[in-house]
Amino acid sequence: MRMLVESQPDLELIGTAADGEEAIELVVAERPDVVLMDIRMPGLNGIAATRRILEAAPYADETGPRPRIVMLTTFRQDEAVLQAMHNGASAYVTKDATPEMLLDTIRAVHAGDAPAMPVGRIARGAAPAVAPAEIAPRPDLAIAALSPREREIFLLAAKGLRNSEIAAAAFVSEATVKTHVRNVLAKLELSSRAQIVVFAYEHRLVTG
Questions:
Q1: CA distances for 168 relative to 150, 155, 162, 173, 199, angstroms
Q2: Helices and strands, number each (H, E), in the chain
Q3: What digits encode the pLDDT tens for the residues 5-63?
Q4: Nearest of 180, 65, 82, 157 to residue 122 by alpha carbon
Q5: Which domains does the chain have, with CATH numbers?
Q6: Cβ count within 10 A of residue 182
Q7: Which of 17, 30, 61, 119 has the smallest set of CB atoms within 10 Å of its CB?
Q8: Which residues pair with 36 in a beta bridge?
Q9: How far apart, in whole angstroms, are the C-alpha atoms of residue 92 and residue 131?
Q10: Do 91 and 112 touch, CB atoms closer than 8 A?
């Protein structure tokens, strides 16, 4: 993966870490745009490291962009991937993914677009992260704070569509889509596109 990233003219590898604690120190020191995080690592695992990175200074007291974290996983770690999304991860990539898939995911999350890997598959297959009693009895109440247009964009994003696909479906520009997605994330107190997908499935706003 290191060789693959370093071979790309538009990407720069700023460092590697052997475990979760080292990853936190490296991210806080170097302020990368994207982090590739293994779920399984010695000591502190990738899920805990993701949470601590996004809560750590210098990010905790800032309103600017935080690093986008891409989890590296296997097909048998769906529950762990879902936990990672709840803790702020933006996407996941399986370790047997093609080089093109990995690079596309890195570029997509950096651009604030939908990840290449379908987060909906994880959200559908995993057990809800909240108890049934905590799920809104009327699903629409979960997005009551959103404007009609923001609800439309939310539901399209919840299907895992990319910005270009949402723009075509809603007859708006990609720049407008990005603005609406940012507003949706802020109003629902979510941190990533992946969390929109998970939120939608857990609140029964999308099915299938």
A1: 15, 14, 10, 8, 23
A2: 10, 3
A3: 999 999 999 999 999 999 999 998 888 999 999 998 888 999 999 999 888 755 555 55
A4: 82
A5: 1-111 (3.40.50.2300), 135-203 (1.10.10.10)
A6: 11
A7: 61
A8: 70
A9: 25
A10: no
Segments in the chain forming alpha helices (H): 2-6, 20-30, 46-55, 78-86, 99-110, 119-125, 148-158, 163-170, 174-188, 193-202
What is the rounded distance in angstroms from the CA atom of residue 126 to the CA atom of residue 198?
10
134-192 pLDDT, tens digit each: 444 455 677 889 999 999 999 999 988 999 999 999 999 999 999 999 999 999 999 88
- The residue behind tokens 């559908």 is 124
User: According to the model, what pLDDT value does residue 69 have?
Assistant: 94
The amino acid at residue 86 is: H
User: Residue 20 is encoded by which pair of tokens?
Assistant: 């979760």
Q: Which residue has the tokens 């290449």?
A: 116
Backbone φ and ψ of 36, nearest 5°: -95, 115
What are the backbone dihedrals phi and psi of residue 73, each rounded to the nearest 5 degrees, phi first?
A: -145, 180
